[in-house]
Amino acid sequence: MRTFLDSFFILCLCFTTARSLECTRCTDYSGEGCSQTTSACPANTNTCVFTYSELRIANQVVPLTTKTCGNDNECNQISRMTLAEDTSFLRSSTCCNSDNCTSPTPILPVLDTTPNGFSCPACYLINSTSCQSTGTIACRGDETRCIRMSINGGATFSLAFQGCSSANICSMQQYFNGLNSQLNYGVACCDPSSQGSNTCTV
């Protein structure tokens, strides 16, 4: 479980390059927040990003707080995925853009569980970079994309899953891959509405 969380939520590691901004870098699984040593951000980033996420599995809620370097398009975003009837992921982000600044605390909205008419293939498999769906799951709220995602850590760890996603997660592959050189993320999405359908296969 912890290995999955460590890999799924690796959102707070940055490259050490030329200084352009200094941000706090930390991660915390307790839900209490985090504040650690600040460090210089990569030259291609321009803001400090503060995120709060929850992985919800049945009646268990696993919180994650991260602070890292990023870009403006990562600010004030609500991202979500549904991987199974009882498994979902929800993430909120805020930003600030001065050295050692403190972003507003991200707040997760009330999760909209209303089916939106779309459905996607769904599966989940540890120690693999692909999984074969045997059924579909109903998408909810603003989950208007079907997503296929893999996390490849070589011989150490791998994970594959499919499900429903908000559109903004589909454009985050470069962001994910820039956060940890030890893991390679693959993200692919399709838009059912663009195909005149209520579902699609990535």
Given helix and strand content, the structural type is mainly beta
Q: What is the fourth-level CATH superfamily?
A: CD59
Overall pLDDT score: 83
Q: Please provide the ordered H/E string of secondary-structure elements.
A: HEEEEEEEEEEEEHE
Number of DSSP-assigned strands:
13
- Biggest β-sheet strands, sense, barrel: 9 strands, antiparallel
Provide the number of structural domains. 1
Q: Which topology does CATH recognise?
A: CD59
Helix content bin = under 10%
Low-pLDDT stretches are 10-19
| Morphology | globular
Would you kindly provide a brief summary of this structure?
This protein has 202 residues and is mainly beta.
Features:
202 residues; mainly beta; CD59; nine-stranded antiparallel β-sheet; two-stranded antiparallel ribbon; 2 helices; 13 strands
What does this structure look like?
It is a single chain. With 202 residues, the protein is mainly beta. It is globular. It is built from two helices and 13 strands, in the order αββββββββββββαβ. The longest helix has 7 residues, at 2-8. A hairpin with a 2-residue loop joins β4 and β5. It has helices spanning 2-8, 173-177; strands at residues 22-24, 26-28, 38-40, 47-57, 60-70, 78-84, 87-96, 115-121, 123-126, 136-140, 145-152, 158-165, 184-190. Strands 2, 4, 5, 6, 7, 9, 11, 12 and 13 form a nine-stranded antiparallel beta sheet that branches. The protein has a single domain (2-195), classed as CD59 (Ribbon). Helix content is 6%, strand content 43%.
